[in-house]
Amino acid sequence: METIEETNKTLNDSGEPEMLAAWIASFAGAFTCFAAMPMGLSAGAELGLTPTSLACVLAGSWSLGIAAGGYASLFWKRLLTPKGRAAMLIAAAWAAGGLASVDSGGAFLALLGVIGMISAATFASQFRPRATTPAVVVATVWALAGVIAALGLVPPLYETLARTRMGTVGAWRIALFVPPILLVVAAVAGYTLARVRSAAVETTVASTDSIDEPQTSAIPAGMAAAA
Q1: What CATH architecture is 2-209?
Q2: Three-state SS string across the chain, please?
Q3: In the predicted model, is pLDDT for residue 45 greater than 50?
Q4: I need a labelling partner for 217 at 20 to 30 A (CA). Which of 84, 115, 187, 202 fits?
Q5: Using an 8 Å Cβ cutoff, are 92 and 32 in contact?
Q6: Neighbouring residues of 117: CB distance < 8 A, sequence distance ≥ 6
Q7: Confidence class for position 73, pLDDT limits 50, 70, 90
Q8: What is the pTM of this model?
Q9: Residue 33 CA from chain centroid, whole number
Q10: Sequence-separated contacts (24+) of 127-134 with Cβ below 8 Å
Q11: Looking at the predicted structure, is the pLDDT value of residue 188 above 90?
């Protein structure tokens, strides 16, 4: 009985790296969305973007992403795997990298919509199949931290770059290199943490099997001695 309780405790504790991976993904997704917003406004004159268009695209993409990650079972079950989450973050990094090279407002909005859907889907999928209040609160805090970090880092970086020879035209493009780098780091970190969890589970199950095996083999030996 004691062995079973210890095994269950180890399995429950090993879920912490998986939760941390989801929180990192929430941070990176929120950072990317709110880094793209002010840079889109900075490129408004060049790409013809308006605050209304940027806000509408983000709101719509978040709605679709939450619906896919929170309610579409086939989608969120794949996102809950380490490879699934990492693949989605890499896809978001590819889209975020494309933001820095577009030459039209339509392309910028399309890529921003992809980023918004992926970010919202990865955020919502961590609450399936059952959400708890502490989990929602902690994940939301991580997402808000991503928002604050984006607004506190990317616009000042843009202002600094704009004062150099590249001017405003090149400054917003260079500043948008930060989000894809962060997304790749989040994908690698989350996948590594999930692998740690898998290794812990496999080790625990293997040790449990090795403990139980002599006990099952001792029964036939005792019966044979008695006979």
Answers
A1: Up-down Bundle (1.20)
A2: CHHHHHHHHHHHHCHHHHHHHHHHHHHHHHHHHHHHHHHHHHCHHHHCCCHHHHHHHHHHHHHHHHHHHHHCHHHHHHHCCHHHHHHHHHHHHHHHHHHCCCCCHHHHHHHHHHHHHHHHHHHHHCCCCCCCHHHHHHHHHHHHHHHHHHHHHHHHHHHHHHCCCCHHHHHHHHHCCHHHHHHHHHHHHHHHHHHHHHHHHHHHHHHHHHHHHHHHHHHHHHHHHHC
A3: yes
A4: 202
A5: yes
A6: 61, 62, 64, 65, 68
A7: low
A8: 0.77
A9: 13
A10: 127/70, 128/69, 128/70, 128/73, 128/76, 128/77, 128/80
A11: yes
- Token pair for residue 179? 């989000």
Structure tokens at 170: 């090149």
